């Protein structure tokens, strides 16, 4: 569907579509379907989570064996720290999706109930613009997952085919996609290179699918809330306090609906933050560590293929961390817009009852909704700066040692 062709009202499912590679790889973690009895959205299958759990056990089990063998037995390590750290980053998000799957389904249904069903109201709420923003982002993620992802997976193969010296020479770490330990020396044996590569590709698809599912849910929920908050702010701006003098009953009837709407949206923002706060706290700092390892890897090599392989996830980490922090800032600004809309009113022209109510409403509107985690961090552009500074400090520490 093109963004300029607005024929039928949008549905919540239009915003929750998975990427093509997820369908092919059976890595769709939320298969949204309508329950015919009550028209609620449900997750029709847990197959994506089951498959992902198996691949995570394979990957982290092999790397844990590699770490134990290196530390306790003194064997050579095949661990790739930069790849291992970013897979932790992806897997934390996947674990959060699984643990919060019921809350996610409930929250999506809450947004679905608040979503208008008719096209006229959707256009009035500027839902077409919300969908347009979603569609642009969906195509960008499509490019990332279907073009950059295969490039990342094929780089080690190119390195192996171009530089490997013979069948008797063990496979080096840079010729492998993920690294770690596999039984019977499979990872180091050139004869089984493509079998090992296929296993690594499956684990990579699992991690990328976790990342994309998290990203889609996070951004769709945020975009829907921005739409509702901005629409409410426009309704508040259209209030004329002088009507409280001429037709007080009708004015306060409208006013009560707006206040209840604001309370509902504030509750949604709090639940939204509750779903993602653990992922914010853990994965962002793990992302700083991953970025540090990638910068270290890039600074220590002059090989063009290795640089091409590791520069992609480096840019992805920076870009997506920036966007999450930007989304948090946008939510803050949308919440603050309600207070700004109130402050611009000619409240002093209203009735005495409204002027008293206005003071209470203004105090409530000053409770800005923010994304954060347990009071330790706030997800905004200041937090993005903190993450980049942390990554740079870790990088300089590694370089100095």
UniProtKB/TrEMBL annotation:
Signal peptide: none annotated. GO terms for cellular component: plasma membrane. One of its GO terms (biological process) is signal transduction. One of its GO terms (molecular function) is odorant binding. Its main location: membrane. It is a multi-pass membrane protein. Keywords: Cell membrane, Membrane, Olfaction, Receptor, Sensory transduction, Transducer, Transmembrane, Transmembrane helix. It is found in: Cell membrane. It comes from the Eukaryota. The chain crosses the membrane at residues 41-62, 141-162, 192-214, 278-298, 304-326. Belongs to the insect chemoreceptor superfamily. Heteromeric odorant receptor channel (TC 1.A.69) family. This is Odorant receptor. It comes from Drosophila kikkawai. The gene is Or88a.
């Amino acid at each position: 569907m093109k963004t300029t062709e607005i024929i039928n009202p949008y549905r919540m499912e239009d915003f929750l579509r998975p990427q093509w590679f997820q369908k092919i790889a059976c890595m769709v973690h939320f298969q949204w379907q309508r329950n015919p009895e009550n028209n609620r959205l449900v997750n029709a299958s847990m197959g994506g989570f089951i498959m992902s759990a198996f691949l995570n056990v394979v990957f982290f089990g092999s790397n844990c064996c590699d770490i134990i063998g290196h530390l306790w037995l003194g064997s050579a390590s095949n661990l790739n720290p930069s790849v291992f750290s970013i897979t932790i980053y992806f897997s934390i998000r996947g674990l959060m999706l699984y643990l919060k799957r019921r809350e996610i389904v409930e929250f999506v249904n809450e947004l679905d109930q608040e979503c208008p069903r008719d096209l006229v109201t959707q256009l009035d709420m500027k839902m077409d613009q919300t969908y347009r923003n979603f569609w642009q982002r969906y195509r960008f993620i499509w490019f990332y997952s279907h073009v950059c992802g295969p490039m990342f997976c094929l780089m080690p193969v190119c390195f192996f085919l171009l530089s490997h010296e013979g069948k008797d020479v063990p496979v080096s770490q840079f010729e492998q996609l993920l690294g770690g330990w596999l039984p019977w020396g499979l990872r180091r044996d050139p004869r089984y290179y493509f079998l090992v590569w296929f296993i690594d590709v499956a684990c990579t698809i699992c991690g990328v699918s976790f990342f994309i599912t998290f990203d889609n849910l996070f951004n769709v929920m945020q975009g829907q809330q921005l739409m509702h908050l901005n629409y409410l702010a426009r309704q508040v701006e259209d209030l004329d306090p002088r009507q409280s003098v001429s037709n007080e009953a009708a004015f306060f009837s409208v006013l009560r609906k707006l206040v209840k709407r604001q309370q509902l949206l504030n509750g949604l923002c709090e639940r939204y933050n509750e779903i993602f706060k653990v992922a914010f706290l853990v994965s962002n700092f793990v992302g700083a560590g991953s970025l540090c390892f990638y910068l270290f890897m890039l600074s220590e090599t002059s090989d063009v293929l290795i640089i091409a392989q590791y520069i992609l996830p480096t840019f992805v980490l920076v870009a997506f961390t920036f966007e999450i922090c930007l989304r948090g800032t946008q939510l803050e600004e949308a919440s603050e817009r309600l207070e700004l809309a109130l402050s611009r009113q000619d409240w002093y022209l209203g009735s005495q009852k409204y002027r008293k109510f206005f003071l209470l409403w203004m105090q409530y509107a000053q409770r800005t909704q923010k994304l954060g985690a347990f009071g330790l961090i706030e997800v905004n552009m200041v937090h993005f700066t903190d993450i980049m500074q942390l990554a740079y400090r870790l990088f300089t520490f590694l370089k100095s040692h």
